[in-house]
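Query form — protein Phosphohydrolase

QUESTION: What is the three-dimensional structure of this chain?
INPUT:
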Amino acid sequence: MTKDEYRKNNDPSLNHFYEKLLKLKDLMNTNAAKQEAEVRHRYMEQFIEQFMKEWNAQI
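ANSWER: The structure tokens for Phosphohydrolase are given below.
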């Protein structure tokens, strides 16, 4: 996908988590980066879970 295609895309912003952000932890090379990426990955998963609960009014 080109930059222009991405900007014209009307998909929800949450898709960016699935298209890119949640894949980053598998791209880390050093042990320190892998550990930090794991922490941030879990944080993003928790954020998405909470966001979806609020979006669906399950709070």
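ADDITIONAL NOTE: The mean pLDDT is 88.
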